[in-house]
Amino acid sequence: MYTIKLDKSIGIHISKTNKKCIVQEIEYFKDKKELIYTIIANL
Fold first, then answer.
1. Which domain holds residue 23?
2. Are 42 and 31 in contact (CB under 8 A)?
3. How many of the other CB atoms lie within 10 Å of CB of 39?
4. How many structural domains does the chain have?
């Protein structure tokens, strides 16, 4: 499992990978104003 922290920009970089990634949880923290994507990737 990978936790990727992105600021306001949404990670299109993830879609560039040939490996399929499933977004498990999208959580938004108002205090930090950042998106945390928890994704499961098949390696």
1. 2-41
2. no
3. 17
4. 1
Are the beta carbons of 7 and 40 closer than 8 angstroms? Answer: no
pLDDT tens, residue order, the chain (43 aa) = 455 555 444 544 444 444 545 444 445 444 444 445 555 555 4
The token duo for 37 is: 């994507």
Q: According to the model, what pLDDT value does residue 8 have?
A: 47
Assigned token pair, 6: 């992105």
41 Cα distance to chain centroid: 11
Asked if residues 20 and 41 have their Cβ atoms less than 8 Å apart, the reply is: yes
